[in-house]
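User: For a benchmark we're assembling, each entry needs the component sequences followed by a predicted structure for the full assembly. Here are entry 17's components. Please fill in the structure.
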Amino acid sequence: MECKKIQSDLVNYYYQELAGSARSAIARHLETCNACRQTYVQIKKALAMVAKEQLEKDKSSAFWQDFQYKVYRRLAAEEASKSWWRDLLVPRRLAPVLAGAVMLLLIIVTSTRLVKNGPEMTSSDLQLAQELELIENYDLIQDLEILENLPEAEQLRG
Amino acid sequence: MESKDLDQQLIEKIKNGDQAAFGLLLEKYQQRAYYFCLRLVSRPEDAEDLAQEGFVKVFKNISAFRGAASFQTWFYQILLNLCRSYHRHRYLVNRFTFNFSRRDGEDEEMEQSLENSVPDQSLDGNPQRLINNEELKLLLEEALQTLPRQQKEIFTLKHFEELKISEIAGITGLAEGTVKIHLFRAVRRLQEILKEFKEQR
Ligand SMILES: [Zn+2]
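Assistant: Structure for entry 17:
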């Protein structure tokens, strides 16, 4: 077998991912090929250095008890949030919660209406304003006409 | 009894509301969950948080677990997803707070300490000095953290969790050939770091 192919499989060989003929072919090749054997020794050395025991077993049983306690506490918190929804379905508790919800809804609706309508005018307000504007404009036009006609009239008189 | 069958039994019991069964599952997998997360996220308090969240997800979604894959595969998937979203979140936090604070850039600190550790050790200038295995192990642990995400995940699942390539493919959703390529590259990178370290001496 070609050395290049062998070398690309050495990591899998190390981790015992090869079986049967693929495994024995590499084993045989390593016995005869110095270059591939060297490569394999390097891989083995490097991976042996990446120690598995470095982290493991450095925690006390108190740590794990605390760990479990925290998991249960999280689960209890999840359950509590779920039971809040369940409580909504219980009639005895439904009344005050519903009353509160209705109040809240009313406040929200009223306040949004106030905010929405604040700067605007109702239709009757608008009509009144338009009418006032018309009257004002009408007066202005009449005044202007009078002023314009005034000198003319005086000239005519004069 | 096979570990896999035992898991399946425990899960059936948990589905039926047996809390003691959940306690047994927790005890069985807590160490693996914690150390797996620790290798992927580095910070102990965050690893603890993620591992605990993993168990909460197991309990909450237990009815969705049909046993098509092993519990172990399913559990690693949950943990991997949690670690990935943790990194995504931290990446975004780092990205947006970068101009304001560099304190959050712990990966950088780690990389710097890795860079610094090499010349520092060569300063004593003694070529006869034996390689300090503890130093080297620490260096390789740190080097692991500098691997690209997928290489790091796959190397962790293979080397530390001692899972089969086929199982890693199941967990990561990658083809076995792709898993092998990532594993190969991760090992090669570790070898390079080892070589650089030796040449520095
Ligand atoms: Zn060869």
